[in-house]
Amino acid sequence: MLNLSDDDFDNMELVDGALALNNAINSDTRVEWAETEMARLLDEAKLALANENNEQQRFDAFIHLFYQEWKFRGDRDAYFDSSNAFIDKVLERRKGVPVSLGALLLYFGTKLGFPLKGINFPTQFLVRVSWPEQAPQYINPFSGEYVSQHTLQAWLIGLKGPLSKLKPEHLKEADHPTIIGRWLALLKSALLREERYTLALRCTDLALTFVPDDPYEIRDRGFIYQQLDCNQVAISDYQYFIEHCPDDPAAELLKTQVNALSHSDVTLH
To answer: Where would one find the signal peptide in this protein (predicted)?
Structure first.
């Protein structure tokens, strides 16, 4: 289990927190290899940028290095593959999703002295770069491209509807626990798609250590237990959700599910 508090996560590099999370979910995560590979790439970056004195040109060279020479890129073919949320797999495959690629971009970029911050934008994770006396710029870690305010507004409308307006709070720096929570939800969703229920259950159990008694996490845990044929535990979790969220449309469906499970054979584990 992951024995880290919110303060612990905030005091760690985001990528180190993600590695700790990955390892808590799947003990096969190659933490030491990932740390060694990141150290190797950081040394390579320092050497590659050593002769560039202009900071903004140096940053452009770093972005070129990350996406063109190291060939990190968004996984367009299998976006929801769980490998995209495990840092060791991202380093090995050079593919990821915005939050995993963004965590690596932040790690290398801040170690190299660039003014970067992570932004938990509603549609996806972004990296903000803030040069003195200039307006902030936003990078899409999935592609390495700068994103305009117009594009951000369009993304927001696509997610929330035509009346949505881009507001300053959408572009605030996110703390690491918030990002890790979003990462955990993404990873759980991917593992459920892959029917890797034991690992998905670990995601839910971890989420409940951060937000105890969350009825939606407990509902999801019930679904996972049902897939694992632990019907009595699933019933208990579904009933908890029904009791605490009676007006949610899912509650009526779950009442039917509870009734069906109650009349099925009980499997003991």
So the answer is: none
- Other C-beta atoms closer than 10 Å to the C-beta of 20 total 19
State residue 1's pLDDT score: 57
The pLDDT value recorded for residue 269 is 46
Residue from 89, 107, 85 nearest 97 by CA: 85
253 pLDDT higher than 50: yes
Over residues 128-165, the pLDDT tens digits come to 999 999 999 999 999 999 999 999 999 999 999 998 99
In this predicted structure, what is the pLDDT of residue 264?
A: 74
Q: At what angle do helices 249-262 and 215-227 cross, to 10 degrees?
A: 30
